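Researcher: Sequence recovery benchmark, item below. Answer with residues only.
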């Protein structure tokens, strides 16, 4: 996208996307690019300082920090209404991404409950398709994505009887 082109409504001023299509409409970000934006920072302020590997405690992995979590979350859109949300393998340690531990899809349910979400669909183990009721900027969508993962983490911890740190 050239510097003279206007930003789409879903872009975040001052945050360069990780990828942009040739026509400038399809834009993708890594979560860590958006971590300092106000809506994302507000979600992180409410989250436990670290997220425990409660989905796979048998692996002996370390808890995920906020920074590490944001580094393995991704989002992209071409219109600000339909979003692809994806996650790295590390997230599978803190949340059940395949309905292996609980019958419900905790992330999909938490995404569907977010404001402005018309539909959330777990398309693949690491990919969610989300349709919104209105165009939102990437930082607002990422805040909802992050909040859904943290909500699912808390729910899984409660169901497994794991006490989370503040």
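Model:
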């Amino acid at each position: 996208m050239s510097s003279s082109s206007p930003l789409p409504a879903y872009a975040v001023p001052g945050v360069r996307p990780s990828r942009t299509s040739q026509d400038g409409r399809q834009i993708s970000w890594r979560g860590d690019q958006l971590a300092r934006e106000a809506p994302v920072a507000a979600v992180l302020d409410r989250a436990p300082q670290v997220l425990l590997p409660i989905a796979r405690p048998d692996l002996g992995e370390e808890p995920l920090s906020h920074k590490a979590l944001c580094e393995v979350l991704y989002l992209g859109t071409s219109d600000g209404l339909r979003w692809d949300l994806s996650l790295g393998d590390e997230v599978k340690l803190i949340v059940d991404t395949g309905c292996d531990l609980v019958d419900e899809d905790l992330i999909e349910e938490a995404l569907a409950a977010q404001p402005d979400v018309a539909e959330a669909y777990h398309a693949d183990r690491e990919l969610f398709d989300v349709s919104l009721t209105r165009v939102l900027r990437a930082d607002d969508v990422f805040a909802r994505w992050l909040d859904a993962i943290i909500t699912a983490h808390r729910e899984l911890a409660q169901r497994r009887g794991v006490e989370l740190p503040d």
